[in-house]
């Protein structure tokens, strides 16, 4: 029988220990008899979808990533199309050095089915250029729905040669789901990484041996505090994170009207001709319309109740809302994004002035329309 000193969790990669249930990698001694070995945290996520609050800190993530530039590898950077700007690793070149990067844009299944794939690819290429990220190739896919996955495998095969493959990305972009699919294509190893709707599932390097003696290396998800999904109560994540194609919600607003997105954010149409605003967010997130003059009172009286999520018990973790004012020019086709929540499309012939209220620190920005 293996001892804890010999084992790493096959789900999250951390060394298994049997001493302290409050530390990463804990497993009861009896669990060491089972194969593959799982820490208690991964066992509970896998079998009971149970939430665990034990996660590594940001410094640990950065230490792990900083070693990639000293290797000769292919880097696969996975981003979430639903939160593209929020999940993109800015300054990735500082970690990967001269290693080539394949950008895998995951979760395209969340967009409405009528969307033109070439338009999405052109939009991503433009965003990547604006963010200064150099890529060997960009691939669109849905790891969950197995859409475009053959193209991901071809891209990796075409760029890696005989190199190791490091897979990097922010939390909740679908890294483990994609790697589980890669295991079946590249290796006879029976393994499955822990996947769950909660951030920080992979906690250390997980090395999956390939048939040619090299490895696919899953790295921990980087925790970005500017994403609303990192601030939200874990019990509310399934309402924030869409799991099926988004049904856009269209609102015809007069100026001085407001939309509340649960209790997480608020959108004020402060000035402009009557026009439509299209909201691309999880279908499970309630949207409430009111007059701007009533917005402050409504939020004060009903946050955590009618305006939820978050429920009252999750409000303490959410920083106070702060204002972000934007002027949308006439004739523009723009979107205002709230990282981790979604975006609002503003196709304005007349122009508009808007104010977005989001928790302090959450990324809010205007971008060219994806759709």
Automatic annotation (TrEMBL):
The UniProt entry, under InterPro entries, shows:
G_CP_dom (IPR030378), GTP-bd (IPR006073), GTP-bd_ribosome_bgen_YqeH (IPR019988), Mito_lipid_metab_GTPase (IPR050896), NOA1/YqeH-like_C (IPR048422), P-loop_NTPase (IPR027417)
The UniProt entry, under Pfam families, shows:
MMR_HSR1, YqeH-like_C
Which PROSITE patterns would you find in this protein's record? G_CP (PS51721)
Q: Which residues form a coiled coil?
A: none
List the Gene Ontology MF annotations in alphabetical order. Answer: GTP binding
- Please give the SUPFAM superfamilies that the UniProt record associates with this protein: P-loop containing nucleoside triphosphate hydrolases (SSF52540)
Start and end residues of each CP-type G domain: 62-225
PANTHER family given in the database record? GENETIC INTERACTOR OF PROHIBITINS 3, MITOCHONDRIAL (PTHR46434)
**Protein name per its UniProtKB record:** Ribosome biogenesis GTPase YqeH
Please report the organism this UniProt entry assigns to the protein.
Paenibacillus hemerocallicola
